[in-house]
């Protein structure tokens, strides 16, 4: 019996040595440094779609994956969800530079980076808060205008998206910034020049000094805008723009320097009904 106990004890010592040896072979993740570039508060870090977050991951461990998470709330309980399409695997660069766009920054958003090494060890960054960047534009939806063969007014006050027509044109002439007629937007009363030349001698009646230009901005980009980033540096020198068509996004600058965009939604005819959405700087 004594020899049996000694045998079992000896087997135990061997097994302990075996498991200790196995454990010592398992690599443990070295400290990971996750840093963010402090650009989130700068206007240049924001695109039309959201905020660009950039930074780096530095470690001597072999990285299996890097994942990015953002916070969200369900019944006032904060949770986190992986940002779709941002997971990176088999990372070899050290440091690894990352850049991702967080869409729809409508409130403060916390971003967390999680690094997993080849042995399953996970290191997480402290939450990085992306501050909400307030809108600096005003939006006016479904402004109904019209040309000579329309029941809607051909003039519009771009500062507040108010259309004017008929007898109201003359009484609001100092408020109107743009006129529509014959597939054209202009800073003067196109109806007056086109249909009443005997009264105005072909002069540019009520020229409001607004300038226009076509852009490459898409309707989808227009709809997603929260700030003036895509058009604040645009310039225009022409007092009219033509021909305009459905889907166009037209840049304008009023005589007092306000910049904005008009999205052409529908146009029934060159001198018919015109439906537009507007964005203008606050």
Number of alpha- plus pi-helical segments? 5
N- to C-terminal separation? 93 Å
Radius of gyration: 32 Å
Largest sheet: 6 strands, antiparallel
Provide mean pLDDT, rounded: 78
Give the number of DSSP strands. 19
Q: Note the run of SSEs as H and E.
A: HEEEEEEEEEEEEHEEHHEHEEEE
Shape: elongated
Concise synopsis of the structure shown:
It is built from five helices and 19 strands.
List keywords for this structure.
282 residues, 5-stranded antiparallel beta sheet, alpha+beta, 6-stranded antiparallel beta sheet
Overview of the structural elements:
This protein is an alpha+beta fold. Helices cover 16% and strands 39% of the residues. The protein has helices at residues 2-25, 168-171, 190-195, 197-200, 219-224; strands spanning 33-36, 50-58, 63-74, 77-82, 88-91, 96-103, 109-117, 122-124, 128-130, 137-146, 155-157, 162-164, 178-181, 184-186, 211-214, 240-241, 249-253, 259-267, 273-281. Strands 3, 4, 5, 7, 8 and 9 form a six-stranded antiparallel beta sheet that branches. The protein has a five-stranded antiparallel beta sheet with strand order 10-19-18-17-15, with no helix packed on it. A five-stranded antiparallel beta sheet has the order 12-11-13-14-16, with no helix packed on it. Strand 13 and strand 14 (184-186) form a beta hairpin.
Fold topology:
Blueprint: H1 2-25, E1 33-36, E2 50-58, E3 63-74, E4 77-82, E5 88-91, E6 96-103, E7 109-117, E8 122-124, E9 128-130, E10 137-146, E11 155-157, E12 162-164, H2 168-171, E13 178-181, E14 184-186, H3 190-195, H4 197-200, E15 211-214, H5 219-224, E16 240-241, E17 249-253, E18 259-267, E19 273-281
Antiparallel strand pairs: 1-2, 2-6, 3-4, 3-5, 3-7, 7-8, 7-9, 10-19, 11-12, 11-13, 13-14, 14-16, 15-17, 17-18, 18-19
């Amino acid at each position: 019996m004594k020899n049996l106990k000694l045998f079992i004890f000896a087997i135990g010592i061997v097994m302990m040595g075996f498991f200790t040896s196995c454990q010592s072979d398992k690599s443990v993740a070295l400290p990971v440094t996750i840093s963010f570039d402090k650009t989130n508060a700068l206007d240049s870090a924001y695109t039309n779609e959201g905020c660009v977050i950039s930074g780096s991951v530095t470690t001597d461990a072999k990285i299996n994956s890097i994942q990015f998470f953002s916070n969200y709330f369900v019944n006032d309980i904060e949770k986190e969800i992986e940002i779709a399409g941002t997971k990176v695997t088999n990372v070899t660069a050290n440091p690894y530079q990352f850049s991702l766009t967080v869409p729809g920054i409508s409130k403060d958003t916390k971003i967390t980076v999680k690094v997993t090494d080849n042995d399953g060890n996970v290191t997480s960054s402290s939450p990085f808060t992306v501050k909400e960047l307030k809108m600096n534009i005003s939006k006016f939806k479904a402004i109904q205008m019209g040309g000579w063969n329309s029941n809607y007014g051909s003039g519009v006050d771009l500062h507040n998206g108010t259309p004017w027509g008929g007898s109201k044109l003359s009484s609001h002439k100092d408020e109107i910034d743009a006129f529509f007629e014959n597939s054209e937007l202009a800073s003067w009363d196109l109806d007056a020049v086109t249909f009443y030349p005997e009264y105005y001698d072909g002069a540019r009646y009520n020229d409001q000094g607004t300038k226009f230009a076509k852009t490459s901005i898409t309707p989808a980009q227009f709809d997603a805008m929260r700030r003036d980033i895509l058009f604040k540096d645009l310039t225009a020198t022409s007092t009219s723009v033509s021909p305009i068509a459905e889907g166009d996004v037209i840049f304008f600058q009023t005589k007092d320097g306000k910049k904005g965009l008009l999205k052409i939604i529908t146009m029934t005819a060159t001198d018919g009904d015109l439906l537009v959405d507007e964005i203008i700087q606050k």
